[in-house]
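Entry 12.
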Amino acid sequence: MGRLSSRAKPVMLLLLCTMCRLALGITDGLLPNGNFERGPLPSQLRGTRVLSSSSIPSWQTSGFVEYIPSGHKQGDMLLVVPEGAHAVRLGNEASIRTRLPGAALRRGARYSLTFSAARTCAQAEQLNVSASGQSGLLAMQTMYSSNGWDSYAWAFVAAANEVEVAIHNPGVADDPACGPVIDSVAIKTLTPPRRTNRNLVKNGDFEEGPYIIPGTKWGGVLIPSLVVADEHSPLPGWMVESLKAVRYIDGGGAGGGGFAVPRGRRAVELVAGKESAVVRTVPGRRYALSFTVGDAGNACAGKLAVEARAGREAATVAYESAGDGGATKRAVLPFRAAAARTRIVFFSSFYSTRSDDRSSLCGPVIDDVAVVSVRAKRG
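Predicted 3D structure (tokens):
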């Protein structure tokens, strides 16, 4: 058998790396050109408007789509792109979509999409996110950061190895260019959490969740509310029941967000929202719901409160926050199960605004949630 030539070796190495990547599936992080830094040629633009559906590498566009450079002025408003130098804006009924190639995903596996978005007009806006025959409508009624940008998460189950991901603006505004700006579209494989004999709550430590874009000034990812419990949540084991925000935060590490997290790397900030989980229980048996309350170290100073519910029992845990993420408070709520499944709920009954930015809402942090069976004491 002859030896490979010096020219053939790099080609074979490239093919081998490609085969390994396909075998391993897609990696967590930005989609190909997910930050839109590779843009159209000058001849494919009229001002900021994208003229051809295939002008943006790795993406297909339809409708009124603009390629926005950072610092672009719209009337008296300056559009800031916080990550990199470019983003895209979706006008009325406009969309962007990309196809993840065959063998990139595993059929039946669960994935979460993360993307950053900002409103450019005063009215409430929505984005329809779809993949693999599933879709979700994400409301952008309230922006939770002072610079107008927030990150959102949405989850789906891959129906095939090759999936098309789309983000669509279904709004009808007076100005066709009055639509949200999109940047940093990323994906993450979600690992289904399991309950243990030490904790009946799946993902009670919140370590499994959507991809968090590193280095963003606003930090964290907003988890959308679900209409029905069997929809796929980007925060496995948990469901957001309110239109108000629940933010998934990162406590640090490589590319971390620098938030204060009571335990581990991840936690949930109940900005003004409500989240719930369902645990398997034995009717009539006693249990204890325990959890930790704190603050994210994001200048959320003042009085905060979390209302916890387990079955028919409820308790409110007050927390005086210094805004520095220092102190935490452990709470326990005993309850007796009335059914084979018991819903536990956490609600931000008292939230605040950041002391360094009164336009940004903030709330208590929840972490390390556990439900265990408690044996009755013999008298």
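Annotation: Residues 138 and 329 are 33 Å apart (CA to CA). The two ends are 84 Å apart (CA to CA).
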